[in-house]
């Protein structure tokens, strides 16, 4: 109430945020966290020129969302909060250090389907893509932005086809740049999977995107989530085009079928990885030429192994 009575006074908002920060660690504050979030984001929107207030507000929001996630509470932030966050993103789009924090916040916010949908509604995708282009070298920003992009693109009722199509080049550039950074590559693979699911690729994109995903798998074979999401992305590409299936078989850096075998043997105790690999193989055998090649590579033997390992799945 103290903050709401004096929106225009920066000092009141700063003191209010500092005072709220001293309460939120207390479990009894839980019922008020959503209201706090709305008040903090509005204070940030009204006083966007004050970087100190932005940083303190963002730090407190991160604390609130971390607590909510720890308690298993999903914060369904509304359109007004999404709009405030977008306003802050646009105002500080050149400040890499602050953006790193802000993009982490957006990633946590987008864990909620409702909040992700609201971020999409206010039109944040083009801003995310601009940030990625500008800070392609920044691993933290790339990691967070790709994670947000995945949350926004994976929505079933997505009407942003044209906007999402423009995300493919920059997402591919992120993966290419950070192939050896497992966390960023994992995040970028997830974003590419979402874009493939939404049918955002042109015919000329299938082969290079498949090759890039295979590179990510080769560079990070031990990361189960990356392998799973990379294979799901490849499966989505293969479903759309035989070109992608042939690209996997005939990749210049080595046979894709050998890679599938290696990844399974490395993660044979991971049902999620096995399921993704089976889905990929199932899409590949829809094409006669590809199926014949897979037979010659004795892929039935691998499938029998998987069947024995996961008899009840």
Structure description:
Keywords: ATP-binding, Kinase, Nucleotide-binding, Serine/threonine-protein kinase, Transferase. With 313 residues, the protein is mostly helical. The protein has 2 domains: 1-154; 181-312. Helices cover 72% and strands 0% of the residues. The chain is built from 18 helices and no strands. The protein starts with 9 loop residues before the first helix and ends with a helix.
Layout of helices and strands:
Layout lengths: L9 H14 L9 H14 L4 H20 L8 H13 L4 H14 L3 H9 L3 H10 L4 H15 L7 H5 L1 H11 L4 H16 L8 H14 L4 H17 L1 H8 L6 H11 L4 H14 L3 H9 L2 H11 L4
Helix pairs in contact: 1-3, 2-3, 2-4, 3-5, 4-6, 5-8, 7-8, 7-10, 8-11, 10-11, 11-13, 12-13, 12-14, 13-14, 13-16
GO molecular function: ATP binding; protein serine/threonine kinase activity
Keywords: ATP-binding, Kinase, Nucleotide-binding, Serine/threonine-protein kinase, Transferase
InterPro entries: ARM-like, ARM-type_fold
Helix content range of the residues, please?
A: over 70%
SS-derived structural category: mainly alpha
Q: Using only CA atoms, what is the Rg?
A: 22 Å
Total beta strands: 0
N- to C-terminal separation? 54 Å
The shape is elongated
Approximately what portion of the residues adopt beta-strand conformation? Answer: under 5%
Unreliable spans are none
Number of domain units: 2
Protein name: Serine/threonine kinase-like domain-containing protein STKLD1
Keywords: ATP-binding, Kinase, Nucleotide-binding, Serine/threonine-protein kinase, Transferase
Catalytic activity: L-seryl-[protein] + ATP = O-phospho-L-seryl-[protein] + ADP + H(+); L-threonyl-[protein] + ATP = O-phospho-L-threonyl-[protein] + ADP + H(+)
GO molecular function: ATP binding; protein serine/threonine kinase activity
């Amino acid at each position: 109430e103290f903050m709401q009575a004096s929106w225009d006074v920066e000092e009141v908002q700063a003191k209010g945020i500092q005072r709220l920060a001293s309460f939120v660690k207390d479990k009894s504050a839980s019922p008020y966290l959503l209201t706090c979030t709305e008040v903090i984001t509005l204070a940030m929107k009204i006083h966007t020129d004050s970087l100190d207030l932005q940083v303190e507000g963002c730090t407190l929001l991160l604390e609130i969302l971390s607590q909510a996630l720890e308690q298993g509470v999903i914060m369904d932030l509304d359109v007004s909060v999404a709009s405030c966050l977008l306003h802050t993103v646009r105002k500080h789009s050149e400040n890499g250090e602050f953006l790193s924090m802000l993009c982490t916040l957006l990633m946590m916010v987008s864990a909620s389907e409702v909040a992700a949908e609201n971020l999409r509604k206010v039109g944040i995708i083009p801003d995310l893509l601009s940030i990625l282009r500008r800070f392609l070298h920044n691993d933290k920003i790339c990691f967070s932005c790709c994670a947000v992009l995945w949350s926004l693109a994976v929505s079933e009722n997505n009407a942003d086809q044209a906007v999402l199509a423009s995300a493919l080049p920059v997402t591919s550039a992120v993966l290419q740049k950070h192939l050896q950074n497992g966390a960023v590559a994992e995040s970028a693979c997830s974003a590419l999977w979402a874009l493939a699911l939404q049918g955002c690729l042109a015919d000329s994109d299938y082969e290079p995107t498949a090759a890039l995903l295979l590179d990510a798998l080769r560079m990070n074979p031990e990361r189960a989530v990356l392998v799973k999401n990379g294979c799901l992305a490849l499966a989505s590409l293969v479903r759309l085009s035989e070109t992608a299936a042939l690209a996997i078989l005939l990749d210049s850096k080595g046979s894709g079928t050998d890679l599938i075998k290696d990844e399974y043997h490395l993660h044979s105790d991971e049902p999620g990885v096995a399921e993704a690999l089976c889905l990929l193989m199932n899409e590949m055998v829809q094409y006669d030429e590809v199926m014949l090649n897979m037979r010659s590579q004795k892929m039935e033997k691998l499938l029998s192994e998987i069947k024995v390992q996961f008899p009840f799945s």
